[in-house]
Amino acid sequence: MKKKLGKACNAHIRKHSKTTYDLIIRNGTIVSGTKENRYVADIGIINNKIVEIKNHLSDGIHVIDAEGLIVSPGFIDMHTHSDISFVQNETCDSKLYQGVTTEIAGCCGFSFYPSPEIGMERLKKYIEEDDYIDFVSKSLNEFIAKTKDYKMTVNWGTYIGHNALRVSVVGFDNVKATETELEEMKEILNRELELGAFGLSLGIAYAPGMFASIEEYIELAKVVEKHNKIVTAHIRNENDHLFESIEEMIEIGRQSKAHVHISHLKLGFGSWHKTEKLFKLIENARAEGIHITTEQYLYSASSTGLSAVLPNWIHDGGTEKILERFKHERQTVIKSIEKSNSYQMGLDRVIVVSTQGFMPEADGKSIREISKLLNKSEAETVIFLLEHTNCSIPTIRFSMVDEDVYEIMKREDCAVISDGSAYSLDEKKIKGNPHPRNYGTYPRFLKLNKDKGFMSLEKAIYKMTCLPASYLNITDRGVIKIGNYADITIFDYNSIEDTATFEHAVSKPNGIKYVIVNGKITINKGELTTERIGEILLKTP
């Protein structure tokens, strides 16, 4: 399963002798992923690699006529929550139909691993996927061994989640890690990076990551830097304390020398219309020599658990302690909720995706609407829902404005990500109505870019392919180039569009005609094939 990574994000054309190809993509308009101008040529594929790019190739066992279509590298989604999506649904429909050929999981500080033996029970309590608790693992290697019999349509890689690591070693409490505990976390992280994890993800906005000191983050980032990998972060606050939170990441990068990366860059409630200040902060850090990069999903609504409405102090000790505080400190909790950024924004902007079967009539409604159904205050409604679902309620939060989303979208150095999971297109398998980003992110970006003219198609494709590959140090995917893996998405630029909405998310986009993963056709003329050729990608020395 380990991949030896090649070199360079650039395209070139090479001639060599006539041969029989497993697959030829003929007459397509190639957008290589490098921002270089598009051109028309054929692509010859043998096994899982691109071996030829030139005109008039012949002798292909399989041939795709791509005349009039755009031939792009497969899209690389470097921020997903598809931690076990291929176990739940091997076809990974919602991503594959968007043209995604590689997903990176383990984001926002969350992962199913790693843990010392003594911390396994704590890690299991941290994992919300009760039906898949058996996949909680001591290491990435153990997780791979547990999932080796599961097939997948897309490639999959992972970060190491800091929150999972901290839960396992330190626990759920608001305490500073001891020197011994920090050394243990560093040793475990070093091992997992050697095993092939792509980097470390921080979930500083979530417990228990919110309780870690900046010194802890700096020391762990130094481990990542030694491996020349990436530290991604769901920063401490994306709303009224956005700039201080980005400054915190800049300081981590400054002191550790690591590549730091801001996950799902946004301006939430309390920082609207301050993109100029945001960009200046990042550019100044780069001018100082700090390696800081960004990514974005393209919606004015985020998606997280309802427990994010709760102020930080309430999370101390984990779910059990939260539920105890609901019982014994209820009025104090209510007052804290009513002072929170979420409450000031308006809980009419917080939509419940699913109550996990507890209160189906609440699914798809705002906290304000549910409060009227229950005849309770909005803060009391939050507590009521959380205490009856073990604090496990996914929500959609309309915390941004389109103007800011579009300004960030215009940046060529900001990778496109979904921050979503690979879900089924069978609505019977879906709980509630998930965020449309799970089904429409990449076609949405192409459609918006075409309609609004943010940048050339070449630059738009770059943001979804070569750019995330370069951030991850993946050098043999993300560009259409001889010698690279044949991960390719072919689409009709005239008809490309997302169809997933906040009202009805489970919907296949239009315009994606073919998707090729590791040389095999997984989407053929817009329909799923039987190929299950995705691989686990490991970034090893």
Sequence stretches where pLDDT stays below 50 over 5 or more residues: 1-16
Extended strand count: 21
Q: Which structural class is indicated by helix and strand composition?
A: alpha/beta
Report the C-alpha radius of gyration, rounded: 23 Å
Shape: globular
Helix content: 25-40%
Averaging pLDDT over every residue, what do you get? 94
Structural account:
It is a single chain. The chain has helices at residues 85-88, 93-96, 120-126, 140-146, 162-169, 179-195, 214-226, 242-256, 275-287, 319-328, 330-338, 341-345, 367-374, 378-387, 402-409, 437-452, 457-464, 466-472; strands spanning 21-30, 39-46, 49-54, 60-65, 70-73, 75-77, 100-105, 155-158, 160-161, 199-203, 230-234, 259-262, 292-296, 302-305, 350-352, 394-397, 414-416, 488-491, 512-517, 520-524, 527-528. The chain is 31% helix and 18% strand. It is built from 18 helices and 21 strands. Helix 8 (242-256) packs parallel to helix 9 and helix 13 (367-374) crosses helix 14 (378-387).
In terms of topology, how is this protein built?
Blueprint: E1 21-30, E2 39-46, E3 49-54, E4 60-65, E5 70-73, E6 75-77, H1 85-88, H2 93-96, E7 100-105, H3 120-126, H4 140-146, E8 155-158, E9 160-161, H5 162-169, H6 179-195, E10 199-203, H7 214-226, E11 230-234, H8 242-256, E12 259-262, H9 275-287, E13 292-296, E14 302-305, H10 319-328, H11 330-338, H12 341-345, E15 350-352, H13 367-374, H14 378-387, E16 394-397, H15 402-409, E17 414-416, H16 437-452, H17 457-464, H18 466-472, E18 488-491, E19 512-517, E20 520-524, E21 527-528
Parallel strand pairs: 1-4, 1-5, 6-7, 7-8, 9-10, 10-11, 11-12, 12-13, 13-17
Antiparallel strand pairs: 1-2, 2-3, 5-18, 14-16, 15-16, 18-19, 19-20, 20-21
